[in-house]
Every structure is written in C-alpha cells, then in structure tokens.
C-alpha cells in the first residue's frame, strides 16, 4: 500500500527527557520537549503502523491512535522498552535519556547548608546499546544529539549500538535540536551512505524517517 507503507508493522518510539530524582523536591533532566519523538509517533501512525510511544515527562498532547506509555526515569524507560522489544518490528529512540542518575534518592528534602553540595551520580543503562546487542530482526533507529564532530560521533554510535540508521542533529544550531519546531538532520546508514537534509519541520523529519524505515522493511522482504 503506497499510502500506508508501514501497515502491519509494530513500531516502538521513545520521546522526551527522563527525570532523575535526588530528593522529593529536586531532579536532574535535560532540554528535550518530546516534540521530535511525538512527531515520529504521529508519522508512523499515519503511515499505517501500530505505534507504542514510551514517553518521558512532556507537556504535549498524546497523539491519537497511539498507545502511550508514560515513564519518568531512565530505569523506567529501560524496563518498558525491554519488556516490549520481542514483539515489535522497529524501535526509534528519539528520547534524550539521562546518562547518569543520583546514586542515592533521599526520602526527605535535603536541607541546605553553607557548604558546597556534592551529588554523586552513577551511570544509567544505555537502552539503545542493549537493544543493539539483543536484536533479532528488529530495525533499530537512534538519534545522536551532538554539539561538535557530528559526523564522527554519530557514525561511532551507529556502529557501537548496532543500529540500522542514526539521525544526527546539531543541538547548538539555531532552530535545530532541543525544543524547537524544526530540526536540521543527517541520516547515516551502516553501508556508509548518508542523507543530508535542509532545515525542516520535525513533522517532515519524522515523515522522512518513516519513509526510510519503510524502504528498509521492503528491502528485507525481498532478501
Ligand atoms: O524532544 P525535542 O525537544 O523535540 O528534541 C529532540 C532531540 C534533540 C531530543 C532529538 O532530536 C534527539 O537528538 N534525541 C536523542 C538525544 C540523545 O540522548 O542523544 P545521545 O546522542 O545522547 O544518545 C544516542 C542514542 O542513544 C539516542 O537515540 C538515545 O535515545 C539513546 N540512549 C542514550 C543514552 C541512554 N542511556 N540510553 C539510550 O537509549
């Protein structure tokens, strides 16, 4: 079906930031609004896919026709994604997952003192890397949020996390990356090809992404 190239496929999309608590009052997070991931979920739904959207905290309206799974922390996102991985055909990881969380979550509000405060942070699981090591025939798409050496760092993540496509965006560029309605992206594929796009709306980036995903499914079906 030309209008619904993802019909019959189940696509899991992640979006938004994660929030890593340190006490009942405070948390660490990042600037992700969820706009990119929600646009991907809507585009995949429009292309006919069954869509599961695993989302960190955002202020966005839930996309229609999509199963929304709300999570807060990276560990929760990890659990929800891993639980579903065996039953999906593709994962698109647009979420900005916190790489670190406070080692201790205090039960009570930390009282202020005159001295400096030191919060010890420990590593969160790398969800995408683990999906890469576990994948059977799922298609894995990652994003790379970079502020320098974009091509080099994006290609390294593509290879290390065993992805089928990585979408690199420069987060320092105006109207691109976090929170904007537009994005300037490059797609990198494992065979060395790349696709460089103009600045465009996150909806258009999402449509391009779904069309590349559909081509990958098509290619596999012919093999
Ligand atoms: O939400 P918006 O405001 O619309 O902004 C969009 C965006 C900038 C967040 C988005 O376009 C984007 O780049 N998302 C990925 C952000 C990110 O965490 O990039 P990274 O280069 O740190 O991570 C690489 C990949 O590994 C990502 O697909 C990420 O989801 C994944 N990852 C990272 C760390 C971790 N612990 N687990 C992961 O799965």
UniProtKB/TrEMBL annotation:
GO CC annotation terms, alphabetical: phosphopantothenoylcysteine decarboxylase complex
Keyword Cell cycle: no
GO biological process: coenzyme A biosynthetic process; pantothenate catabolic process
Phosphopantothenate--cysteine ligase: annotated segments: 11-223
Catalytic reaction(s) noted: (R)-4'-phosphopantothenate + L-cysteine + CTP = N-[(R)-4-phosphopantothenoyl]-L-cysteine + CMP + diphosphate + H(+); N-[(R)-4-phosphopantothenoyl]-L-cysteine + H(+) = (R)-4'-phosphopantetheine + CO2
Protein residues bound to CTP: 99, 109, 125-128, 143, 157, 161
Assigned keywords, A-Z: Decarboxylase, Flavoprotein, FMN, Ligase, Lyase, Magnesium, Metal-binding, Multifunctional enzyme
Signal peptide limits: none
Whole sequence portion shown: 182 to 404 of 404
Protein name, entry field: Coenzyme A biosynthesis bifunctional protein CoaBC
Pathway given in the UniProt record: Cofactor biosynthesis; coenzyme A biosynthesis; CoA from (R)-pantothenate: step 2/5; Cofactor biosynthesis; coenzyme A biosynthesis; CoA from (R)-pantothenate: step 3/5
Record function comment: Catalyzes two steps in the biosynthesis of coenzyme A. In the first step cysteine is conjugated to 4'-phosphopantothenate to form 4-phosphopantothenoylcysteine, in the latter compound is decarboxylated to form 4'-phosphopantotheine.
Family membership: In the N-terminal section; belongs to the HFCD (homo-oligomeric flavin containing Cys decarboxylase) superfamily.
Phylogenetic lineage: Bacteria, Bacillati, Bacillota, Bacilli, Bacillales
Enzyme Commission no: 4.1.1.36, 6.3.2.5
């Amino acid at each position: 079906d030309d209008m619904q190239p993802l019909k019959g496929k189940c696509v899991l999309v992640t979006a938004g930031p994660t929030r890593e608590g340190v006490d009942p009052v405070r948390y660490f997070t990042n600037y992700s609004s969820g706009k990119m991931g929600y646009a991907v979920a809507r585009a995949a739904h429009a292309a006919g896919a069954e869509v599961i959207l695993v989302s960190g905290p955002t202020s966005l309206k839930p996309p229609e026709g999509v199963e929304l799974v709300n999570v807060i922390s990276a560990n929760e996102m990890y659990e929800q994604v891993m639980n579903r991985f065996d039953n999906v055909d593709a994962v698109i990881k647009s979420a900005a997952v916190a790489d670190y969380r406070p080692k201790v979550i205090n039960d009570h509000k930390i009282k202020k003192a005159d001295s400096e405060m030191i919060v010890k942070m420990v590593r969160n699981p790398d969800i995408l890397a683990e999906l890469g090591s576990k994948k059977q025939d799922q298609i894995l798409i990652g994003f790379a949020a970079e502020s320098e050496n974009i091509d080099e760092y994006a290609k390294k993540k593509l290879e290390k996390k065993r992805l089928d496509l990585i979408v690199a965006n420069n987060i320092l560029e105006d109207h691109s990356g976090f929170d904007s309605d537009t994005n300037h992206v490059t797609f990198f594929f494992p065979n060395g090809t790349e696709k460089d796009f103009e600045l465009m709306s996150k909806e258009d980036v999402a449509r391009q992404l779904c069309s590349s995903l559909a081509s990958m499914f098509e290619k596999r079906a012919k093999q």
